[in-house]
């Protein structure tokens, strides 16, 4: 083993644990150093090792698949010395945030790896946009991280009852997700948030102005531990730059804040949509037909829930919209799925006709 208990301790604030160490064993036997990737640019990356931040070349770990290139948050095995150093391998990721690009041939772009908490910042200074929250939730679930909704600027809500209603509205939209009102300016709730994210790596998601920077600063306190990225420029000497891409929080945990993540919007949500609408998925299991489209089918548990007021029609509309949007994104690259979708359209058309015929002729509701 080329790294000691001391170096293990040095990496712990960046999320190193027993499982990572176990997976790293074969690389340790080759004398490689473990380190967490802080940023990647132009074929090089900054890696935080127990020896400090090092610059390493990514030529050995640049596969054709854009989703497999090194990214912020990855755990890398780097050369212990030499110039240039190389990243020799990356440990398998536990979670990953992916953005589907807006180009015609939609190829994903990996934004951050090994994230435990997706903190979705939602401002209480503006009217709640539940549809937008659902989008961020689907994106978060899809990554494998656990979402957490932080309602920021709670100090701007005049009364406690009003705040309670807002929290309740968001909670209804976010089954299985904790909703936490916070005021960074008044210092309320920040300690609760700090305690939650202390156990892992977090990212802050949310639209511009949602209060992400303010929240990040509140979590970082005065103890800002900016990562010092060291770079060698043509042998002319060492230039030190500061990046805020990956930060150890004073209360424990790691915050990843990359420009790319700030802009996420379009996405391939897939199973994330199902998790974001888990109550609809659960209801659907009770529908008489296992391929029920919840439109006019007899024995539909989803429509029954809307009828008895336990499910808001808005939720079903959002769900449909996101499923459709997601399929369109995926279909850009997947011809087979495209064919499936066409079949589905035909089938639904046929079902629609059958349902109408049944309604007219055979007295179904
Ligand atoms: N009253 C109040 N204002 C806040 C609070 N948190 C943030 N703000 C204000 O909200 C505005 C936006 O906050 P930012 O932290 O810059 O938002 P952001 O999400 O980082 O925005 P981008 O950097 O554009 O992505 C700023 O004017 C903050 O001062 C809060 O707890 N209470
Ligand atoms: Zn149904």
TrEMBL record:
Family: Belongs to the TRAFAC class YlqF/YawG GTPase family. RsgA subfamily.
Subunit description: Monomer. Associates with 30S ribosomal subunit, binds 16S rRNA.
Pfam families: RsgA_GTPase
InterPro entries, A to Z: G_CP_dom, P-loop_NTPase, Ribosome_biogen_GTPase_RsgA, RsgA_GTPase_dom
Domain CP-type G: 105-264
Localization terms from the record: Cytoplasm
All residue ranges annotated as the EngC GTPase domain in the record: 113-262
Keywords noted in UniProt: Cytoplasm, GTP-binding, Hydrolase, Metal-binding, Nucleotide-binding, Ribosome biogenesis, RNA-binding, rRNA-binding, Zinc
Organism: Streptomyces chengmaiensis
Gene field: rsgA
NCBIfam families to which the protein is assigned, alphabetical: ribosome small subunit-dependent GTPase A (TIGR00157)
Function, in words: One of several proteins that assist in the late maturation steps of the functional core of the 30S ribosomal subunit. Helps release RbfA from mature subunits. May play a role in the assembly of ribosomal proteins into the subunit. Circularly permuted GTPase that catalyzes slow GTP hydrolysis, GTPase activity is stimulated by the 30S ribosomal subunit.
Domain of life assignment: Bacteria
EC number(s) stated in the UniProt entry for this protein: 3.6.1.-
Cofactor requirements of the protein: Zn(2+)
Protein's UniProt keywords contain Cytoplasm: yes
Protein name stated in the entry: Small ribosomal subunit biogenesis GTPase RsgA
UniProt-annotated binding residues for GTP: 152-155, 206-214
SUPFAM superfamilies linked to this entry: P-loop containing nucleoside triphosphate hydrolases
Residues engaged in binding Zn(2+): 287, 292, 294, 300
Cofactor binding summary note: Binds 1 zinc ion per subunit.
């Amino acid at each position: 083993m080329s790294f000691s208990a001391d170096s293990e301790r040095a990496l712990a604030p960046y999320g190193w644990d027993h499982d990572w160490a176990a997976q790293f064993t074969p690389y340790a036997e080759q004398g490689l150093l473990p380190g967490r990737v802080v940023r990647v640019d132009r074929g090089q990356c900054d890696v935080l090792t127990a020896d400090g931040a090092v610059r390493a070349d990514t030529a050995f770990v640049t596969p054709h698949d854009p989703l497999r290139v090194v990214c912020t948050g990855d755990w890398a095995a780097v050369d212990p010395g030499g110039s240039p150093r190389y990243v020799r391998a990356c440990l398998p990721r536990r979670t990953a945030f992916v953005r589907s690009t807006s180009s015609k041939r939609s190829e994903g772009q990996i934004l951050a790896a090994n994230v435990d908490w997706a903190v979705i910042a939602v401002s209480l200074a503006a009217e709640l946009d539940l549809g937008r929250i659902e989008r961020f939730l689907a994106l978060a679930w899809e990554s494998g991280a656990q979402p957490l909704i932080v309602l920021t600027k709670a100090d701007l809500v005049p009364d406690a009852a009003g705040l309670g209603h807002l929290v309740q509205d968001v909670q209804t939209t976010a089954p299985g997700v904790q909703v936490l009102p916070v005021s960074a300016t008044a210092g309320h709730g920040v300690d609760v948030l700090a305690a939650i994210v202390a156990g892992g790596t977090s990212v802050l998601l949310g639209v511009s102005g949602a209060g992400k920077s303010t929240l990040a600063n509140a979590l970082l306190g005065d103890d800002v531990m900016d990562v010092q990225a060291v770079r060698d420029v043509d042998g002319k000497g060492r230039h030190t730059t500061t990046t805020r891409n990956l930060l150890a929080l004073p209360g424990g945990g790691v915050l990843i804040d990359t420009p790319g993540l700030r802009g996420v919007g379009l996405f391939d949500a897939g199973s994330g949509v199902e998790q974001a609408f888990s109550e609809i998925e659960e209801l659907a299991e009770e529908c008489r037909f296992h391929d029920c489209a919840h439109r006019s089918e007899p024995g539909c548990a989803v429509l029954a829930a809307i009828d008895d007021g336990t499910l808001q029609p808005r939720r079903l509309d959002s769900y449909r919209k996101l499923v459709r949007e997601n399929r369109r994104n995926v279909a850009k690259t997947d011809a087979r799925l495209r064919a499936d979708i066409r079949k589905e359209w035909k089938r639904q058309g046929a079902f629609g006709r059958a349902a109408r015929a049944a309604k007219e002729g055979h007295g179904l509701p």
